[in-house]
Amino acid sequence: MEDPAVSVLKRAVELDLASRFQESLVCYQEGIDLLLRVLKATNDEKKKAHYRDKITDYMNRAEAIKKCLEKEKEEGKYHKEIKIEENMKGFSYEKLFQEYLNETVTEVWVEDPYVRHVHQLYNFLRFCEMLVKGPCKVKTIHLLTSHDEGNGKGQQMSILEEIQQSLRDFSVTLDVSYSSSIHDREIRFNNGWIFKIGRGLDYFKKPQGRFCLGYCDFDLRPCHETTVDIFHVKHTKKT
């Protein structure tokens, strides 16, 4: 019964020692929860005392990491790297961005050369829906992308115009620009947060069918392998 807790907490310590504090905090919290369950199920008083001591130690360390991360966030030194592995689930746009979307966000910039094909345009639409739902007060979204090659160019422009019109109904302006030389993928909020996603917004795998779980809810959709880097503009200005 103790094994899962030991395994998770061992991983927490390894990540902690490797200075991967954000990930270690998640493991500490999960491990503490598992250890609390073990404590509740234990009748041996000696073992109970041992578990309580361990839980206190891990809680103190988790709290120290939490304070350190909050301080780095305030100072603009915060950098978080999320490695999304092949076929992982639970990485909808809400999960990635919601933490950084407060009421100060009124303007968003999306640079992504691959908002071209229908599924990529749907991804962008899903991203826009998240912004409109709040809690941020987005008024302007800037999209810099590249033209679809060949016959898809007209369809791409038509769909983006439709999204533009739909956003207008929510008092949001969509500003679309095209560049043939754009390669980098970056998303910026005017509160200073910057997101670099290896695959841009297009990191979800194609659903197995139109009536399969994950077709509507992106948290249930398997992902392609990619890396997400999140940092603050203050951090980029420091040498």
UniProtKB/TrEMBL annotation:
Domain MIT: 1-76
Record Pfam families: MIT, MIT_C
Residues forming coiled coils: none
InterPro entries listed in its UniProt record: MIT_dom, MIT_dom_sf, MIT_domain_contain_protein1, MITD1_C, MITD1_C_sf, MITD1_N
Cited Gene3D superfamilies: MITD, C-terminal phospholipase D-like domain, Phosphotransferase system, lactose/cellobiose-type IIA subunit
PANTHER family per record: MIT DOMAIN-CONTAINING PROTEIN 1 (PTHR21222:SF1)
Name of the protein in its database record: MIT domain-containing protein
Organism, scientific name: Phrynocephalus forsythii
